[in-house]
Amino acid sequence: MKRFVLVISLMTLAALLLAACGGATAPQAAPASASAPSGAATSLDTSYPNALPIRNQLLLGMLKLEESAHPLSAPQAAALLPLWQGIRGTMNSGAAAQAETDALLQQIEAGLSAEQRAAIRGWKLTQADLQEWARSQGITTGSGDTAGSGMGSGEPGGGQALSAEARATRQAERGGSAESGGLSKALVDAMIKLLESKKAN
Q1: Per residue in 107-140, pLDDT tens?
Q2: pTM score > 0.85 for this model?
Q3: Among candidates 186, 198, 174, 196, which has minimal Cα distance to 59?
Q4: Domain that residue 189 falls in
């Protein structure tokens, strides 16, 4: 009888231990599901002063990666090229929904390594950085006011009579005007050219 009671006690203890183990392992699945949303959202910051929008942060940042310890690889270029071509298409048509553009940008960011994303985030790129890039490429920062962007048509010469410095000032005053202007398109074209060259090598 004592042996029977002992067996029952051991079986009960084993059942309790199994239940305890099962209860302990269940919460471990929570962090994995909780981390999923962070992968879908951007890791870039737009809250600092004069921050570039996500699209231009990615564009300028990816171009700057070529001068860093984490340049884009040929496989990355092959994967990212059609995505940036899709962005270029939405800029040309002007008919794409914001959700479509956001989805493309999320795919582009997901195609970067953790080190590349961290580098772009750490640079905290601003409108001044964008203007500096434009000057290095021989592009006037007022290109967003020319006929190429459809802006400034109400002014004499479409804004072309302004000096480069005056155009840069007006560009900065308008805030995100470069986002939809010729300067952003120049960035996308430069990115596509870079990706095509890396993909070919």
Answers
A1: 999 999 999 999 999 999 999 999 999 999 998 7
A2: no
A3: 186
A4: 51-151+160-200
